[in-house]
Write a structure and sequence with these properties.
Distance between the termini: 93 Å
Strand order of the largest sheet: 3-4-6-5
CATH superfamily of the largest domain: Translation initiation factor 3 (IF-3), C-terminal domain
Number of strands: 6
Largest sheet: 4 strands, mixed
CATH topology of the largest domain: Translation Initiation Factor IF3
Structural class: alpha+beta
Radius of gyration: 28 Å
Shape: elongated
Order of helices and strands: HEEHEHEHEEH
Oligomer: single chain
Number of domains: 2
Strand content: 25-35%
Amino acid sequence: MTKQEALALAQERDLDLVEISPDADPPVCKIVDWGKFNYQRTKQLQKNRKTSKSLDMKQIRFGLKIGAHDLAIKMNKVTKFLEAGHKVKITLFYRGREQAHKEIGFTIAQRVIEDFGDTIIVDQQPQLAGRQLSFVVRSSGKKPAATAVDTATTEGTEGETNAKT
């Protein structure tokens, strides 16, 4: 159908000729009531905006000298963020002479990744930037068999049972 035929048909029906996809070859047009079409399109955009969940990037920071229990608490927070559907940026920061032992940060990062196992996907591998070692993880959608918190607390309590006696 030619452009003139389409315009004549639209005028005959007291409707508007609306170009739907101008990039197509030939361009796709519809004969519709412009006010109704625009209203429906606006409502659909509002509905999509309302139902879409904005995923935030959460961040957890800790130092190299973090204790087992403190690490378990931090990993519990990470688990809650992941369950909510957020990405989590985990940052280990170096202070003073800790910069001479960069490998400690990488071992802690690897331990965190291994504790979560298949429940996470590492979006950004651990990388050192100045005085911080950071990496980004997101949920893989799998349910954890044993939570990372449980493994971290059991590792930290070994050999500490009679430390004060």
